[in-house]
Write a structure and sequence with these properties.
The chain is built from 13 helices and 13 strands. It has 356 residues and is an alpha+beta fold. It folds into two domains: 1-64 and 324-356, Hypothetical Oxidoreductase Yiak, Chain: A, domain 1; 66-181 and 227-309, 2-Layer Sandwich (Ribosomal Protein S8, Chain: A, domain 1). The strands form three sheets. It has a seven-stranded mixed beta sheet with strand order 2-3-4-12-5-7-8, sandwiched between helices. Strands 6-11-9-10 form a four-stranded mixed beta sheet, with no helix packed on it. A two-stranded antiparallel sheet has the order 1-13. Strand 2 (68-69) and strand 3 form a beta hairpin. The radius of gyration is 20 Å and the shape is globular.
Length: 356
């Protein structure tokens, strides 16, 4: 079923209010999740709500949390999110860190102990809207590692995303937002909910051999996701773990606590004011020149156009804003069931949805 994006935001807000979020926090999280759906990152969209509800019930995700802002050390700021909703915690932490940019021309943020921060590209967009270049490394702890290092049959780290963007006229363009696994785990979950197989290369089974069956991984955590690009993606995933967990955070997967429905993120963010290098207009002209150069390369046979990082997300945002966002019935059922467990009737939740 395709749903009107604004109605999906209301649906998500109602769910989050049931979980105990304030209206402000529910708005931030709901808009973040639906924006992930709009850009085609369904793995980080409204399908995350059942997990968030379970985490709140377990006491491992805290609505309306107040983070600890530690005093800046030069250009470095550290923020402990204390297991608050990461979508809001990350924005508060970035705002805190960016106070050093005026004097230092750079801000370096270590966000620790945060609830799931979802689509990391959101934070690249947030920095670009303020005219800043940014780079973000994230690790994932709280559950057993689910991505196999190159050559392994079991997990050694998690999806460990990386995002970076250049600012162009107040927007992130180009924008790179990627997991260091071949796919995010949420895409395997979505395939399971739809009763579909996954493409070859996404998963290995318990013997370390390739498989297209997502169910053992989704339901029993048998096997592992693969790192993209074999040893190269594996190397990036390992360094994301070290940058976010060992350097900016306090835990890597090797030592982190495992808890029910556990997902915590640490994030290292580097925010750069282009004026520290040159006139920002000159930097922007060079960015524009190079991106036009890449986009103008002759496409390979069977390819319509050479795309830059972020182009596909922008196209999906336009298409889904017009046509609606597809959410499978099983995901809607799971969300409704979780919200009912918090005392909000399913009918009250579902009346927010408008089909396209």
């Amino acid at each position: 079923m395709n749903y009107d994006p604004k109605s999906l935001i209301r649906f998500a807000c109602t769910s989050l209010r049931a979980f105990g979020c304030s209206q402000e926090e529910a708005d931030i999280v709901a808009n973040h999740l639906v924006e992930a759906n709009l850009t085609g990152h369904d793995s980080h969209g409204v399908g995350m709500l059942p997990m968030y509800g379970a985490q709140v019930k377990d006491g491992n995700l805290v609505p309306n949390q107040t983070p600890d802002f530690m005093p800046a050390n030069g250009a470095i700021s550290v923020v402990d999110a204390k297991r608050g909703f990461g979508h809001r915690m990350a924005i508060l932490a970035l705002d805190h860190a960016m106070k050093t940019v005026a004097d230092q021309k750079v801000a370096i943020l270590g966000l620790r102990n945060s609830g799931h921060i979802s689509r990391v590209g959101t934070y690249s967009e947030y920095c670009a809207a303020r005219g800043y270049v940014s780079i973000h490394f994230v690790n994932v702890v709280g559950h057993d590692p689910i991505v196999a290092p190159f050559g392994a049959r079991e997990g050694g780290f998690s999806t460990n995303p990386i995002s970076m963007a250049m600012p162009m006229d107040g927007e992130a363009s180009p924008l790179l937002d990627m997991a260091t696994s071949t796919v995010a785990f949420g895409k395997v979950r979505v395939a399971t909910n739809k009763g579909e197989k996954v493409p070859e290369g996404w998963l290995v089974d318990g013997e370390g051999l390739g498989t297209t069956d997502p169910v053992p991984m989704t339901n029993e955590k048998i096997g592992a996701l693969t790192a993209f690009g074999t040893y190269k993606g594996s190397g990036l995933g390992i360094f994301a773990e070290l940058m976010a967990g060992a350097l900016a955070g306090t835990t890597t997967v090797e030592e982190a606590e495992i808890f029910p429905n556990g997902v915590l993120n640490n994030m290292l963010s580097i925010i750069i004011d282009p004026s520290g290098f040159d006139d920002p207009a000159a930097v922007q002209n060079r960015i524009a020149g190079f991106t036009e150069f890449i986009g103008g390369r002759s496409p390979a046979k069977g390819v319509d156009k050479v795309l830059l990082p972020g182009d596909l997300e922008n196209t999906r945002r336009i298409d889904r804003s017009r046509d609606g966002i597809a959410v499978d019935h099983e995901t809607i059922r799971q969300i409704s069931e979780m919200v009912e467990a918090f005392g909000t009737p399913k009918d009250e939740l579902l009346k927010a949805l408008i089909a396209r």
